[in-house]
Structure formats: C-alpha cells, structure tokens
Amino acid sequence: MLLVLVIYPVVATLALSFLTPDGAYAGLHNYQSVVGSPDTFNPTCFDQGPPCGSLINNLIWTGLHLPLTLFMGLFLAILLQNVRGASMVKSLIFL
C-alpha cells in the first residue's frame, strides 16, 4: 500500500521533472530555470520594501501556516478531550 500511495508518485514526479512538457528529456534545465529565475528570489526587492519572490512567499507561508495549524489542532484536541458531546463536535469538525 505504501508503494502505491507514496513511493510510486514520488518517483514518477521526480522522473517527470526531468522532462519538457512535450515529453523530451530536459536534464537539469528545468531546475536551472527555476533557481536562476528572478521570480524565485529577487534580491532587488530589498531596496523597495519587503523581499519578494516565490521562495520568500513559500517560507512565509510555511512559517505561519504550519505552527498555526499544529497549535489549532492541539488546542481542539485538548478542548474536546473530556467534554460531553465531544463525538458530535468531532464529527462536525471533520465535515
């Protein structure tokens, strides 16, 4: 089951990342274009205000979203641990 749901999609995605949209082999060109693109990280934005680029956006999103999600889940779990009607509230949360 792990092979079908996790390992195969990861290997297939990695293999597809070395191809062009039409299926030709691109090698590391796809990775070079992402790393070298000003859309990934644009240091000139530091002069104009907050840093910009997809790398900064992803770091901010991860830095804010991950802790908030973890703490909210922990808070709800503690809150519903010994509450009457907790099963109904849990069902509503999952809906």
Model description:
The protein is an all-alpha fold. The protein has two domains: 1-36, no CATH class; 52-95. Helices cover 65% and strands 0% of the residues. The protein is built from five helices and no strands. The protein is flat and about 60 Å long. It starts with a helix and ends with a helix. The mean pLDDT is 86.
Keywords:
mainly alpha; 95 residues; flat
Number of strands: 0
* Rounded average pLDDT: 86
> Based on CA inertia axes, which overall geometry fits?
flat
Into which percent range does the helicity of residues fall?
Answer: 55-70%
Q: Please summarize the sheet with the most strands.
A: none
Q: Which class of secondary structure composition applies to the elements?
A: mainly alpha
Radius of gyration computed on alpha carbons: 21 Å
How far is it from the N-terminal to the C-terminal residue, by CA?
Answer: 26 Å
What proportion strand?
under 5%
- Uncertain segments are none
What is the oligomeric state here?
Answer: single chain
Number of discrete helical segments: 5
Number of domains: 2
Order of helices and strands: HHHHH
